[in-house]
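Issue: copy button drops trailing tokens. Both records pasted manually instead:
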Amino acid sequence: MNFIEGTIFILFLAILSVPLATKLRIPLEIFLFLGSCIVGFLPGVAGFQLNSDIVFGLFLPPILFYAAYFTSWQDFKFNLRPILQLAFGLVIFTTAIVAVVVKEFLLPQLSWPEAFLLGAIISPTDASAATAIVKKFNVPRRFLIVLEGESLINDATALMLYRFSLAAILYGTFSSSKLVGKFFVVSVGGIFIGLIVALLATTILKRIKHTHAETTFTFITAFSSYLIAEHFGCSGVVSTVTAGIYFGIHFPELATSRTKLNAKASWDTLIFIINGFVFTLIGLEWPVVLENLQSYSVSELIIYGSVLTIVVMAIRLIWIFPSAYLPRALFPSIKKKDPMPPAKLLFALGWVGMRGIVSLAAALAIPRHNLPAGFAQHVNLIIFLVYFVVVATLIVPAITLPILIRMLGLSNADELEEKMHQEAKARLNALDEITKTITTMKENENIPEQVFQEFVKQIQRKHKVIQTQLNPAPYSLLQDDYLIYKKLLFAAIRAERNALMNLRRQGEIHDEIFWSLSNELDIEEVRANTLRASGV
């Protein structure tokens, strides 16, 4: 089985697994792991190794840009302190402790740079799997913001440590003072380049005015921000994250509705496929990795992986509580502005340190040719341990997190109610603006009174329906009206779609008309689904 066949197989398995993963509320990555194991143990599988530059240049930019695009800049700024404590402090702390445990207690045959390399690879968390679970339980919004913000920034710290550790192995040079200076320079340079690329991209985007070209241009922007920064010796990760956040703020103002829908769907699909690619590469490497681990017994490998997983999970829990308490103890202004979070929230945040695709990509990017003799013997062990930790930190929290959230009572009904109120107020404000605009048009243009009044009635009806969300009595007649309205709305969309399909089958309308009207219905249904869906 070659790379293309393996990827098609894993993607096929992932697609079939989506309903089960959704129903069981477990990360889809677990099914990708199972697929990669199947691929790796199929007869005739040949080892496959990509150049490290291709692994980083091909997989990281879209992953980082996608995550940054959907980051709330407002929330990110407010939670910057805890995010940076996790993204910088915890990553460095994890790398150092893992290196000490590995070198002094677990695998003394590894050199210090190799131990630090392993620590750097497994230090960054991946929020995608965790958020896929916790979003279903209505946890406090800040929990998600910190989790996603940490995942967004910690890759830069981890990959910087990764590259310095790898340089120390390959070239025998390492300097902590140079590391700090270099980290500052490449990070600032990455921010600067990311902003420049994003500014130029948004300027160009204003002039394109073509849905597919605009969507493709967002991909080009993601890769350009990474590659240009790397070309000038700056952090491609920081550059891509910066460009992604900037795009997330300004792209909705520049793109048409059709482009925004198309871009969201295209990016979701691309990230889904990239996950399949990475797990396929791991699966195709399994024969080579396992063949070169024959000097270790299966029990030894399981013990090494299990101990490392426990250490990684324990380090996060140990870090979370002091990092939340000490800044508030030392600086009362922080405590006044941002009171101490509940212990149960901190524990849950410490428990969801899932590792993911960035760690896998970093392991795959370790060069396999012209290596020092000692390191060449240890590469496969490092890759195995990384894969073990990634899978274990996906499975253990995925199984226990739903139970933990229920036990700790992390559901935040008040926050959900506030969110719904904000949404209702925003919709009412928009409808008020519509009324003002069309009234002005009526005064300045020759609009028939009957047409105007009919349109106004529709606006007033929507206004009344949305107003029910602000009603303090959740079971009032108005609330029932709202739910009935939602049912009627979806029934109307289904009926209209069925009518169009019947007309098409009977040959009474041309396909071009069918697709045009179907697209309108799709957009209307997407919009309707953004309304509160309780009871529908």
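Record 2 (pasted manually too):
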Amino acid sequence: MSDTINCFYEFGPFRLDQTEHQLLRNGERVPLTPKAFSTLLVLVSRRGRILGKEELMREVWPDTFVEEGGLARNISALRKALDDTSDASRYIETVPKIGYRFVADVKEVVPEANGEFVLERYAKTSVVRLEEIDTAAAAQTKSGHRFFPGTRILTLGLVLVFVGLTLAFAYGWSSRRSKKAAVTPKTTAIAVLPFKQLGSAAEDQFQGLAMADALITKLENLNQVSVLPTSAVRRYVGSTGSGAELGRELGVDAVLEGNVQQTPDRVRVTVQLVKVADGASLWAAKFDEKSTDILAVQDSISEQVARALTPKLSEEDKRRITKHYTDNADAYNAYTKGRVILEKKTIDEATLALRYFQEAIDKDPNYALAYTGLADAYYVLGEKYPALAYSETMAKSRMAAEKAIELDDSLAEAHLSLALVKFNYDWDWPAAEKEFNRAIELNPKYTPAHHEFSHYWMAMGRVDKSLEESQRALELEPLSVKMNVHLAWHYLFARQYDEAISQCKKTLEMSPNYIRAHNFMGVAYVQKSMYAEGIQELQKAVGLKGDGMEAMEKLGYAYAISGRKKDAFRILRELQETSRHGYVSPFDRAVIYAGLGDKDQAFYWLNRAYEERNSGLAFLKTYAQLDSLRSDPRFSHLIKRVGLPE
């Protein structure tokens, strides 16, 4: 950081002394690394302003390439130092997908020339509002100031500009820092709502969501447009709320909504782009085409929406949003139906989706995306079906993913599908890492790749890398319940139990009955020896509708480790009964026996898990509930058999 002013910044019980390069709390020094201090100094000196990650990294690491993980670690360290880890941030606010902002009131204290007293300049943090940004952007555009690339801000204005003496004074910049204001290209956040399906039977209602999913896939390729994923809008299927209302609920700038009606020979689509702030229509159109022209309709919609959101649409942008993976409308319809159905990831849905993906391939044998769907459906079936079918379904998943890559090596989805098999079943760690990296290289905004890559790094014992990928996934989908609870999963496996509990509480605010949030929070309490609280949360998870079985093993372990052995054996009997008509993981039973202190039974079931290549064994190095077994030579031998690096 350059051109700093010699002054103190005071906020709460803290004093930030940039001359001595130290942070004090009630006069006591708070230990910080030099880079963490520099990060805090940048945030405080520009309090109230949203600072993008790129801008922060340029300031803290000038002329040095640094990945976002370094910044994330600094922010995490600062929050701990400031005791700012509660749900409501008092000092450092995270602005999803953008960066950070210092929000506390700050008093800037500047020594006078004689050094005998100080001048208190201002004590109130000025937070820039979106409407102020829009006004400033308009003024800057008229003045003809030059544009420079930088931080992305969620507004519908053309650019974000911080100019003028008023803002310069508010941020405490002296005349020595007078420079041309940097202009930041905007990033517009939009949601594509499920289209309302008109005049169709109930079983065909998927088409409206499929239309939204197709447009999301196209528009997410634009650099200056941030599009919510299908998982974030799925719950609005059949919703009667207005687009502006739902957009405000989702926290976006604009909403694309419409109706679709399909007959055997025609497709009719009515669509409009709505500005969330005032409900004004930014663009609208009607299409009445042959059913075989559905792909052309989607191209036209996505291109016109892109032009309404982006001042200049490059040829590369146009190419990306109009790219077809098949020109066969029937194959496309079968694929999209399979994708929508597979979202639920149950045995029945995966089986049905499998048939649609195969239908798509039958109609277009060169349809690479359909092969990725086939790979993913087989993967889900392998995870859900009994062990006897596991090797067969995983082999088919691998073959389908490899075929997709053979047809189109540029598909991030295909490389992720192959990475999952390499990681969870083949235990081919180098190949898995290669495929994960390739998927992210092809599509850096592909959330599932970051999500799954974090699992890989945790299995390898690289907690730092796992956190980077977990945070990136959440930045890409901040409203996703799944990505929010996934961060809790990371903290749980990283043994940061307070952080895991806090993140689970945030997730439950979004979805009070989300099983995994209760599940992970229960485990975190148990690991903190807060057995009553942990058992209560796990009982909630088991009792909720859905896949409550995934919490049974955790509850059994909680009973065992807390001394309630009769209850633990009752859980084991229930699992045994379930295994007579369904699949029960041997890994789950091993964990309960570890909690009971029965090492022989624990290793018996771990060996059973090894025989069927149970995916839980990938986490042997980091699974805390197995700590009681680590000193046993059999555990080291098992790690070597699985092939995990030392």
